[in-house]
Amino acid sequence: MRYIPHTEKDIREMLAKIGVKNIEQLFDSIPQELRLGERQLGLPKSLSELELTAFLGRAQKRNVNAAEVSLFLGAGAYRHFSPALIDHLILRGEFATSYTPYQPEVSQGTLQAIFEFQTMIAMLTGMDIANASMYDGASALAEAVIMAQRITNKQEILISRTVHPEYRQVVETYTRANQIELVEVPFSANGKTDLDSILNRLSDQTAAVVLQSPNYFGVVEEYAGLKKQLTDRGALLIVAVAEALSLGILKPPGERGADIVVGEGQSFGLPLSYGGPYVGFFATQDKFLRQLPGRLAGETVDREGRRSYVLTLSTREQHIRRERATSNICTNQGLCALAATIYLATMGKQGLREVALLNVRKADYLKNRLRKIKGFKIRFDADTFNEFVLECPKPAEEIRDTLLQEANILAGVPLKTHYPELANSLLLCATELNTQEEMDRLAEKLEGM
User: Fold this and answer.
1) pLDDT tens digit string along 158-179?
2) CATH code assigned to 84-344
3) Which of 37, 91, 69 has the alpha carbon at shortest distance from 409?
4) pLDDT tens digits, residue range 248-282?
5) Given pLDDT bands bounded at 50, 70 and 90, which one contains residue 32?
6) Where do the structural domains in the chain lie, given as residue ranges?
7) What's residue 388's pLDDT?
């Protein structure tokens, strides 16, 4: 793409149009101490293409090679093996450009892929129906909260503090204009949501209770016993799943009393990619079909009796009367949902379970290795999937930074930012891609601190 700079005349005309005297006025909102001013960026003078290529090559060598770093990060974005088949298929022309089936009567391939995605998500979550996917796990949870308000006509939402902090922030942003009251529920000493606190706070004004399992600390929540009390009060149970691979081994939320199940499908064959694009999923019961946000593809037969697919439900404002719309979500993550579908089809039921078991065993090995180190301890005594919290003898940020600088080990996420009471704690994750050698090396480095 050619770069054509503005002429002085262009600049004067644009400034006059927006009513400012000069370019400097455009930056009045930026504090002086943050501006470059007379300081120089330290960049070299203009270079030829050959010189610039050499300069960038030298600069690139200063980066740490990701392959040389031992990663123990999770917290909502997980490093998993992705079969080569996925990229091979989704990069085919007919799929690489898939976005939204605006012409559903001819987009049979796209609609079939969406239908398969919906079917697999419904099976994994133990729910009756699933939609054509959402932007990500956080926005899917926000849509679920608004849906619960719409169904119950109540304003109060009890949401556990063990739900991913960024998910909670997105929910707060989405619901700010809906007069929804978000009430945070504390967690107990074992890292699980305090269910007694929920029951004590539950009222006839409660629209829903929101839990995450495995929760942000990696702990598997026990919530099956809540169902009767919530039903008696006319409240719904929303369960979020940030680590979708856990569905390969844990009992489906739908079989444990969930009314709405949402989550993030990144673990199903999507790369980390600096945080996106990812793919949210949304599943619920048949009776809530008309309240489902987004789209839903269905299977039928054409006039000649051949199997075909249609866009059965689309409840966005552009498709139906505004007052009947359930959401303004305008896309399904078509390509990402396709990648997740190929991943699940490739792994199969047994393969998914085996990978999930590997995650449990790897994390359990690391947990038991680290709990033996003097000064360190496992913060919560509860069942976990592939993440757990390690309490450290010094600030977690200091330990993380030292390990990265001295050993190329990225050792988890410090919890202080979102949980001040866990200031010296690290959230660590081990997946099937973490080797025993890596885990032993992390333990050895911590032993030397």
Assistant:
1) 999 999 999 999 999 999 988 8
2) 3.40.640.10
3) 69
4) 999 999 999 999 999 999 999 999 988 889 999 99
5) confident
6) 66-80+348-447, 84-344
7) 98
> How much is the average pLDDT of 317-333?
68
| Cβ–Cβ < 8 Å for 246, 221 | no
Superfamily for domain range 66-80+348-447 = Aspartate Aminotransferase, domain 1 (3.90.1150.10)
Compute how many other C-beta atoms are within 10 angstroms of the C-beta atom of residue 176.
Answer: 10
Q: CB-based contacts of 111: which residues, under 8 Å, 6+ apart?
A: 101, 104, 297, 309, 310, 311
Identical fold between 66-80+348-447 and 84-344: no
Which residue's entry shows tokens 């990619």? 273
